[in-house]
Structures are given as C-alpha cells and as structure tokens.
Amino acid sequence: MRVLVTGGAGYVGSHTLLPLLRARHHVLVFDNFSNGSPEALRRVKQLSNADFDVCAGDIRDAQKLEQAFGEFRPDAVIHLAGLKSVGESDRRPLEYYSQNVVGSIELLKAMQRHHCRKIVFSSSATVYGEARYLPCDEEHPTLPLKPYGRTKYFIEQIIRDWSSAEAGSSAVLLRYFNPAGADASGRIGEDPIGVPANLVPYIAQVATGRLASLRIFGGDYETRDGTGERDFVHVEDLARAHVAAIDHVARSPGCEAINVGAGSGATVLEMVKAFEKASGMPIPFTIAARREGDVSRSLAAARKAESMLGWKAERDIADICETAWRWQSGNPDGYGNRK
Ligand code: NAD
Ligand code: UD1
Fold this sequence. Notes:
Helices cover 41% and strands 17% of the residues. The protein contains 11 helices and 13 strands. The strands form 4 sheets. A 7-stranded parallel β-sheet has the order 3-2-1-4-5-6-11, sandwiched between helices. The chain has a two-stranded parallel ribbon with strand order 7-10. A two-stranded parallel sheet has the order 8-13. Strand 2, helix 2 and strand 3 (53-56) form a beta-alpha-beta unit. Helix 1 packs across helix 8 and helix 7 packs across helix 11 (317-330). The structure holds nicotinamide-adenine-dinucleotide (NAD) and uridine-diphosphate-N-acetylglucosamine (UD1).
C-alpha cells in the first residue's frame, strides 16, 4: 500500500518505517521536523536499504497537505505527528490543542478530499487516567488527567465520528502504553531535546554520565516497592503493531481502539536495576516527591491486539534496556546538534 506517515521522523515514526518498508509498503514521511531528525531518516534508509519520499510540512498547513496527498496519493495514513510532553501541555494547552487536534482535523479533511479512508492513529494509554481496575482493557472508562491526554481523547472521538460518516472507512486507534528502547542496530533511538522527561531516556543519560542522578518521583505508591509501575513496550514491537494495524485497516472497515502494551509491568526501581544490569553502569538515584499528574500503576490488557491484529509483544525490559543503552552509548549526543 501507499502509506503517508505523519511524524515519521520522530522516535516512534522512525522505528515504524523499518518494518513498514520491509513489508514493501510505499512510504511518504510528512513531518515538520520540530522534534524529528533528517538524520534519523537517513539512517532508516541505510538500515532498510529502501528509499521513500519525505515532505517537510506542518499538518496544520492545508496547502502543504494538499500537495502531499495530490502527489503521493496515499491509500492509508499512519498519524503520529503531534506534541507529546504532558508537563508542557499544562503550560501551553492551546498550542497542544492546535497542533494535535486542529492538525488532525486538517489531516482528515485532506484524506476526505482525496478519498483516502484508512488511518492508524497514535493514541495513548493516558486516555484512561487513573485506572479503576487493572489490567486496563479498551472498555475501561476514559478520563485523561492532562491537556495532552485530552487532545488524544478528542482526536479519538473525531476519528470515530469521521469514520461513522465516511462509508468504507477504517481506523485503528493504537493506545500505546510506555514505548521504550531502540532498534537493535543501535543506529536509531529516542533523541529528546534538552533534559528527558521520560524515564528510560533519563536513566540512559545517567548511565553515560551526562546526567548526574535520577530522581524517582514517588516512593510511596501502592506497588511492590513503592515506586510507580508501568507497562513498557519495546519500540520495535510497537513499530510492528503499526504494520499489523495497516494490514487490518486494509481489509476491515470500522473504528477500533486497541491497546499496545506488553501486558506486564515493571516498577521504576525494577527498570533502574534492569538498566544497571544491561549497561554495567551504576544508576545513582534519590527518591523525590510524586510528580503531579502521574498515575500509580498502568498495565495493558493486550488481548484485543492479539485477537484483532495478531500482534503481541515479544521483547521484555531487558531488551528495552540493552537496546536503549546501545543507542545512548553509541550516540551520546543523539543525532547531534539539536540541543
Ligand atoms: P516524537 O516527538 O519523537 O515524534 C513526533 C514527530 O512529529 C516529530 O518528528 C515531529 O517533528 C513531528 N511533528 C510534531 N508536530 C508536527 C506538526 N504539527 N506537523 C508535522 N509534524 C509534526 O514523538 P514520538 O514519541 O515518536 O510519538 C509519536 C506519537 O505517538 C505522538 O503522537 C505521541 O503523542 C504518541 N505517543 C507517544 C508515546 C511515547 O511515549 N513516545 C506514548 C503514547 C503516545
Ligand atoms: C507519560 C504520559 C503519557 C505519555 C508518555 C510519553 C502521564 C500520566 N503519562 O507516561 O501520556 O504518552 O509519558 O510521553 O503523564 N519517572 C521518574 N523519574 C524521571 C522520569 C520518570 O521517577 O525522571 C517515573 C514516573 O514518575 C513514572 C515512570 O517513571 O512512574 C514512567 O514515567 P514516564 O516515562 O514519564 O512515562 P509516563 O508518565 O508513564
């Protein structure tokens, strides 16, 4: 199929391109490079030994979208572009609603104009908010706690409404749990600008000595060791889930929300220990206050992904730590010159 990938130059996007290209899909990356890197795309081309098109543009730019859709004529869209910092979304909510929600509407309008009726969207487990029961299945009520999560919730609703109105349409809303790790090659990985907000890239930078020590946000949660628990899903597994979702939208109409998680959890302390083991480096840490807006535990029921997409996670937290370390130690400045 011809697949337009918004946000393809970012962390999840660059990893998703690899199995997509290996499955011989034709790809156009549409990205404004606000948080993505041309170097990541260059390395994806090298790793896959395949070529693809790139269009530098913003998803809120209707003219640029028109040009991309007109020239590439996609059969389907994987929509990953957007802003993703939960803390920043508190401070700049309108920017988040504009980039994420308005951008998604512009994208759907372009799809409608060009009779492109298949979409796979990057949603997040954050739409569930604090879990009422665990593991969280897709029927769990949605009550996101922060503007970022609300943008995901609104986009899900908008895609559902679009899908009901658009005959023959098909959508998969992938609710990622906690993506982490890097491609096994260590050539592409997560390259946050500035100090990482997420756990694994933060630990990785402590391991290289770039950051002095980890602050663990909260030691008094009701978990095995008092630290928060998350369902970490290897980014290579997550990447495969997108290809499975593309296969699904190609053959089945409707709109489905599907969890993408490993179905098992690790606490922050367990991640620290796993990273020390994988890297052979000490990870000094202190226990700090809870981070505002954090849930205590998050765990996916991953049965729907298995039954509907034939997908399940194959890698564990040891693989996550090993590959994150390979990427971070081999590329201590990430893709370089972005900080
Ligand atoms: P990322 O920031 O690495 O990638 C996003 C990409 O989108 C970047 O290349 C950026 O340049 C591009 N982009 C941003 N705004 C754009 C715009 N207006 N127009 C065009 N391009 C734009 O983030 P990621 O971690 O790869 O996440 C991808 C998607 O998955 C996001 O929608 C994110 O909300 C969602 N998600 C990520 C996680 C995670 O932990 N990484 C978890 C759940 C959901
Ligand atoms: C957050 C968002 C989620 C988003 C994801 C990726 C919430 C509720 N969820 O997930 O929507 O998709 O980021 O952007 O905000 N931790 C530390 N020290 C650190 C960093 C993190 O102790 O320096 C802890 C956190 O408190 C948490 C765990 O590590 O318990 C995971 O944190 P993080 O990687 O930021 O992911 P989430 O908060 O789960």
